[in-house]
Amino acid sequence: MKILVIGSGGREHALVARLARDPQAHVLHSAPGNPGIAEQAETHPVDANDPAAVCALARSLGVDLVVIGPEAPLVAGVADALRAAQIPVFGPSADAARLEGSKSFAKDVMAAAQIPTAAWVTCTSPDQLPAALEATNPGGENPYVVKADGLAAGKGVVVTKDLAAALAHGEACLSAPGGSVVIEEYLDGPEVSLFCVSDGKTVLPLAPAQDYKRALDGNDGPNTGGMGAYSPLPWAPAELTEQVLDSVARPLIAEMARRGTPFSGLLYCGLALTRRGLRVVEFNARFGDPETQVVLERLTSPLGELLHAAATGALADLPSLTWSDDAAVTVVLASPGYPATSTSDLPVRGVKEAAATGCRIIHAGTKTGPGGELLTAGGRVLCVVGTGKTVADARASAYRGVAAIEIPGGHNRSDIAALAGGPTSAPLPPQRNEDSGSGRE
Ligand code: AMP
Ligand code: GLY
Fold first, then answer.
1. Mutate to test the pocket of ligand 2, among 284, 383, 431, 441 (most ligand atoms within 8 A of CB)
2. Is the confidence at residue 325, as pLDDT, over 80?
3. DSSP string spanning 202-241?
């Protein structure tokens, strides 16, 4: 197959790297891509968010499949333009991508489909905020959760015990013309990311993973796009995936089809395993980053065939997916200042040495300098993926790779997957979500 992957981050490099390992050799293209992607695919300097430009590229290359990585092109209608041009595309329409693009839309769909989620109130004016905060968190006993309604590049969610800060964030979100804000009940318990592939009718789950959202060890510091991830989750209930399919993914796909906006692509179910049961924290309309790096590392079925079947409505005909029993752990190396800022043009050294330890190195925010050297080009720079028989082994492997890489002033967490693996490890404690802003890159 000839496949074009749209995007330039770690998720897209993980997709390309996994497609390159399919038994059936593909011809791989990417736009715009990054230096890591360029080692396995031909890259094209095309604006990922421009539907006409992406269509023109796909047509000129004569590709059999376009895979859209990030959310922005989906919301911009790139998948719609490709479908209109009869080019098979993995990624939902702009209408279906509203599941990620609008928190209040996602809540409405969940209500209609009776999907368990945090209780919420949508506010459209500041005078509604105090009552909504009290209704979702009586007496301020738990943290308040305040979410900007639209895509906010990850900056839209504040979880805080401070009522004044919650009000201030709500007011800031509402200051934009036509702005609205979702106030919701706090969910305790560990978070799980479960990716489901759908063609609009059939749903196929991938392996569950867990992401580390906070910048610092011990789940401290500000929220980020994700500082590391691992799969499988040895502590998770065996029936978790079935439960999510029955109570979340299948009802959602059915409701989207009923509305005339079928969801075809990757449904990212962000879940909290609370004391009162499973709840949806959020939906995304694309693969998660960095969870994709570990989930695809473990997938042994051909990825190209899976994504093509989803794009062409043929998932029901596909054999069951197969998985490696090995664990995978990824650690994100970030540039100085992330997530508040990012630092470009710093030298990135030791990638070859890290790969020589047996890790896979995924490029997230890199570029090639004038002399061919590798430089930082964003907040999250590299993801180091280690594998092993247990999560503990995979973790040890990932950190061996991390030790070989040097980014001046860069930082990474040292506790990714620390509590997750091995027969003697305790179950993960609930992740603390209090007092966080949220950032992503
Ligand atoms: P979202 O953009 O909705 O995924 O929110 C970003 C992050 O904020 C989530 O991954 C959680 O860590 C946290 N969060 C969001 N909603 C809640 C909630 N209702 N209760 C606790 N934490 C939340
Ligand atoms: N890792 C979180 C996300 O992709 O949204």
1. 284
2. yes
3. -EEE---BEE--EEETTTEEEE-S-SEEEES-TTS-TTHH
